[in-house]
Amino acid sequence: FQIATKEPLNPIKQDVKKGKLRYVANVFPHKGYIWNYGAIPQTWEDPGHKDENTGCCGDNDPIDVCEIGSKVCSRGEVIRVKVLGTLALIDEGETDWKIIAINVEDPEADSYNDINDVRRMKPGYLEATVDWFRRYKVPDGKPENQFAFNGEFKDKAFAVNVIKDTHEHWKALIAKKTDGGEINCTNLTVSDSPFCCGQDCAKATVDAAPPCKAANPIPPEVDKWFYYEKN
Predict the structure, then answer these.
(1) pLDDT at 151
(2) Any domain includes 220
């Protein structure tokens, strides 16, 4: 599921690829996602801005979050998190920051204050995270992803600065100071944005959406395992 940035009000929708619903591949030994995978609102990785740390431009999406708490969140659930660090993924030549965070309501949240706490409390978890992101697109026929900083995680202070930078890019986008291309910036809450619309406009947009129907059955290939020799 992704934030549909090209559609009015940016609904959360399941990705479609080549006419089929998209599911994440299971690259051994990882079954599905190994954290709660989400995004930070009001952030934007500007594809026209070359990141000084990675040397690559942004991926045109909100900044991604890997939430490492014990609760499995529901799709679309909004939670507050404590930022712990970040990983700089280079996905097909684009900067794609992955923020490592923990739900503030997690029973162990007080024990996590920086990236080294993750390494101490969850041995092997950060290494597994790098491995997951390195290889998850290989079953689609794509090469392994690369990383800035040789795949090393940066600390909390660094991650917070990344979030602040991408928030500034979002503010320029929503104020029409930056060309967002096909991104739909229609919104209800940023009153000084030229894209701000009223409740009637938003309701009409929602009412015009197709009605919900019964979900398609999950295809059996969703449980297929992929194995391959690591590079």
Answers:
(1) 96
(2) no
